[in-house]
Amino acid sequence: MTIDPHQEKRGFEAEVKQLLDMVVHSLYSNKEIFLRELISNASDAIDKLRFEALSDPALYESDSNLAIRIRFDKEAQTVTVSDNGIGMSREEVISHLGTIAKSGTREFLSHLTGDQKKDSHLIGQFGVGFYSVFMVADKVTVLTRRAGLGAVHGVRWESTGNGEYTVENVEKPSRGTDIILHLKKDAEEFLDNWRLRSIITKYSDHLNLPILMPKLTEDEKVTEEWETVNRATALWALPKNEVKAEQYNEFYKHISHDFEDPLAWTHHKIEGGNIDYICLLYLPAHAPFDLFHREAHHGLKLYVQRVFIMDQVEQFLPNYLRFIRGVIDTTALPLNISREILQDHPSIAKLRSALVRHTLDLLEKLAKDDPEKYAKFWKEFGNVLKEGPAEDFANRMRIAKLLRFASTHHDTDLQSVSFTDYIQRMKPNQKKIYYVTAENFNAAKSSPHLEIFRKNNIEVLLLSDRIDEWVVSHLPEFEGKPLQSVAKGELQLDEITNEDVATKQAEEQKEKEQSQVFDALLKKIKAILDHQVKEVRLSHRLTSSPVCLVRDQDALGSQMERLLKAVGQTVTESKPILELNPEHTIIQKMREGLNEERLKEWTQLLYEQALLAEGSALPDPAAFVQRMNKLWMEMMR
């Protein structure tokens, strides 16, 4: 490798300058957080060394006693955080410290609200926690060397946080990283032994590696001897009754780089069965910015016999549970396990099944015992959980019980109605769960297909998320009740409305007479729309709208067609059925007699109106506008 020893001055990216100013001057309300961030980063560096050393033990360089060391110097006004982890090369220093949160800086800035408390919660989420050091330091020096490289490959990085930094090669005998903070005048509180120790105990007591500080004499003078400040015990390995809620919360923040407490967690130690493992799973309070990014990695931290193996292991949980954070520690896998071997290892399926079960247990308990917290979870992760019925057939019914929807039972778009809630409110003779799909809540709530249901006070689920129609296509029924779209097939509500025999006979006679009266009009409209609709018939579902489009029972819904087309799928389109409301004034006017040209114009307008009502795009918007303008001009004469 060619060494470039000269000092090089470089500028941060434009967005990074803005980010630094935000972090330094307005973001953090609690300055002590900087130490937690540095300790967390040092812990990650040591974990990475452990993992890489499994295949290359020489990376330990005869120093396998892994630790984080923290010391302060009152005369020099410095605090130094050191680790003997993996370290960084010159290229990695420029990449990691010169371009903050490469994939997340723009998203981070776009999420800032101006509320200091809320904005501070974003820091770990976007990977910019290191730069919290500039809250307390007017200059930061980083000395680092990557494990496996020679002493001459050390690197010094230095910045005052003013938009520029310098980088140069230096000699560094030991691997790892030293971060030296030159403290500001208003940050001298951190030049105190007990202040630093209290922060370590508060935030990092759970780390499974020692955090060392110089030992003090009785008169509080610093010695050359080091002592462990934290418990240095894997929190997940402790009995649940020995772990406090505050410790669970701080451990979550460490592994997730989140600043907010989790909504809930579940902790299990299984021994003596088919497979031994310990798991600690957390439910975050908010969704990460990259939850729906295809290239983003999610998953659990994997430990084998307390030894960290790798981060973000996705094999242990299905994709619809990718929001879960936590650790899995097992004896069922070898220490030299790799991501490739994980794919086929026989223990993975058993561990995956167990972790899914624990996660669904946690969600069910939260939904039952704390509906308010579950509502927060659903707002953040509901659309992810909706992927479950298609992805996890074995647990389809358990997932279905956790789903929430809006409905005509409420006036707001709050998704709070479960299938169980719906069934409990069903009419005495109702056999189906009715739903309508639309592009958004207002479109669903205003759908003409709901008119007959509102008239008879029958609840309908309002499905307005893009994924909803895909969800119900994989959930044909719930607890023996078929799911039925109100925009598909023939409606048979006579059993639900519970009309007496005389009323039913009168309705049947009325429908028979209407069929005869409107038969000629139906044929004319079918001839006009022959290439656009499969059939034209009188409607039993409309009470105030003149027309609506209905699909065959087994056909794709309009929303599903649009979704599949958007992702490049070939869709075999089926013609819809046009239904007319015989009680509506417009339909009656059309039957009474219009000349051929006006009947054609009105028919096209009504068809396009029906397309708009179901959320479909018009085939020729300009022609629609011209027809509307022509109609208005006729009315104004």
List keywords for this structure.
4 domains; nine-stranded mixed beta sheet; 22 strands; 38% helix; alpha+beta; Rossmann fold; 19% strand; Ribosomal Protein S5, domain 2; 22 helices; five-stranded mixed beta sheet; Heat Shock Protein 90; elongated; 637 residues
What does it look like?
The chain is an alpha+beta fold. It folds into four domains: 8-227, 2-Layer Sandwich (Heat Shock Protein 90), CATH 3.30.565; 236-378, Ribosomal Protein S5, domain 2, CATH 3.30.230; 404-486, Rossmann fold; 499-636, Four Helix Bundle (Hemerythrin (Met), subunit A), CATH 1.20.120. The protein has 22 helices and 22 strands. The strands form four sheets. The chain has a nine-stranded mixed β-sheet, covered by helices on one side. Helix 2 (33-55) packs across helix 6 (193-204), helix 9 (346-369) crosses helix 10 (371-385) and helix 9 (346-369) packs parallel to helix 12 (396-402).
Could you give me the name of the CATH homologous superfamily of the largest domain? Histidine kinase-like ATPase, C-terminal domain
Any idea of the CATH class of the largest domain? Alpha Beta
Radius of gyration: 33 Å
Distance between the termini: 87 Å
Going by CATH, the architecture of the largest domain would be 2-Layer Sandwich
Topology of helices and strands:
Elements: E1 8-11, H1 14-27, H2 33-55, E2 68-73, E3 78-83, H3 90-98, H4 105-111, H5 116-120, E4 137-145, E5 154-159, E6 164-170, E7 176-183, H6 193-204, E8 211-216, E9 222-228, H7 245-256, E10 264-270, E11 277-283, E12 300-304, E13 307-313, E14 325-330, H8 339-344, H9 346-369, H10 371-385, H11 388-391, H12 396-402, E15 406-407, H13 419-424, E16 433-437, H14 441-445, H15 451-455, E17 461-463, H16 468-473, E18 477-478, E19 481-485, H17 494-497, H18 501-528, E20 535-538, E21 547-550, H19 558-566, E22 577-580, H20 585-592, H21 596-613, H22 621-636
Parallel strand pairs: 2-8, 12-14, 16-17, 16-19, 20-22
Antiparallel strand pairs: 1-6, 2-3, 3-7, 4-5, 4-7, 5-6, 8-9, 10-11, 11-14, 12-13, 15-17, 18-19, 21-22
